[in-house]
Specification:
It contains 2 helices and 45 strands. It is mainly beta. Among the domains are: 4-99, Conserved Hypothetical Protein Mth637, Chain: A (2-Layer Sandwich); 103-192, Immunoglobulin-like (Sandwich). The longest helix has 15 residues, at 85-99.
Length: 538
Amino acid sequence: MNVREDTEGITFDVLVQPRASRSRIGLVHGDRLKVAVTSPPVDGEANVAVVDLLARSLGVGRGDVAVVAGASSRRKTLRVLGVDRAKLAALLGAALLGACGTSGTIDITPVTAPGSTVLDDVEHVRLVLSNPYTVIEADRGPNGFDLAIDVLAEGPSGEILLEGFDADGDLVAYGRTPPLPIAAIDASITIYVAGPQTLAEAPVTLGVARSEIGAAVLEYGVLLAGGRDADGAPTRQLAVYNAYDHDLQAGADLPEARAGASVGTGVTGYAYLFGGEDADGDPRGQLWRFDTTVAPSGLWLEGDDEADLARTGEAIAPLGSDAFLITGAPPVLVEGLLLRTTPIEPPPDLRGKAATVQRTEDPGAPIYTVVVGSGAGATGIMTFSNGRFEEETGPADAERTGHGVAATVADQVLVIGGADGTGLLASAIRCDPGLGTFIGIPDVLGTPRTDAAVAATGTLLVVAGGRDAAGEVVADIEVFDLETLARIATIPMLVPRAGAIATPLPNQQVLIVGGLDAAGAPVDVIELYTPAPPTLPD
């Protein structure tokens, strides 16, 4: 939490939950203090309630507390006179200690796509806590639903599922949280709710429409870096889509504008950006490290610019311990903690899409990076493990371009779509580098496509948009069972696009962002795929 102190008082940021079941000081959420108030966000009532609550809690007059930024937003900045950092810390400690009894209450705020009416038909809600398994049922009352669930001080990690049923008992709305620490605390959380097996707009947009965005998965969401704006110019924007509140949090701008950069995240709270095209249209060979833990918006550290390693639009795959492999000529080893980049040879040139897996049942097993596509050796498949490249034998159509890859929870890499010398491909390849098997699967895609966005959740594979054989933008996503690759659904996109990014969120939804629409313009709308709920115990 970022608290700014001066001789007169303190300034800090809060995240406000209006219309809560009761007013209280919550926990720190990212770099903001969470504050719940019962008042609605109408005519400044929530602001008044926040000021009253903080004044009472800190023992100052109402006139000593002011909302200095974000008056019409849930994200506000407060200024408190006559209070220092230590007094605020004591308040937070008291709030936490007061919550450390034998139970707590989690209040739930559902959010939907802008203008969505998905909740209008909901007459009955079921809340399910996965661990310890708890089910809460609630009917719609005069004021809607009072959505809260009591938890015991057992401290496991669990998820909360929300299912909404209409008057006929049909499931019409579904959402779930990412994993939560379940303990004896009072907290407020947000669940994005949509129809099961649907695509819907996220509550926020990019703000600036962009293509060629660099993206990487974080524990709590997705980091989005740079990209190309509507004028074709690289940008400096950095933002994180947070799956816990479904908001877009702005980060510190990139040191320089970049499009098509390779972006990866490590296990230390750092993100890394390498290469990309600069504002002059030149590829670059510089590594940047971004510390996501530094308040209020992160901190960049720049490495040397290696002109002989310059590249743009290349694949990146983790190697463990904040190290990464980046394709290109030559392939590059990134040692993130050392802020160092070095060429790996042989091979002198490595192209294709890349993903990394490690056999989870064997902690001592090596980490395998699989690179597939035209330019990945003579066969189209190469693996990298223990510092060595190996050329693998696989199906002839492995030498493809414009395809997508995704690592799965089964320690495999799936390759799908793209094109080879015969034309567009509907086939997939299931790669299991631990077993040394690379098996082609024909006729998977209903619509063969290139430049699709591809992502895998724990149970599903999602292939979104792309271009068909005529070069037209494909207007749907195809959803497959991850184990069998049987097609489950074909769903129209809100904004058909090619060259987008698809990433799994920790709540099992899939985020689709960026890309170019049918007119060739970058897209600012963010779409969320919501799967059907899992089968629950009786």
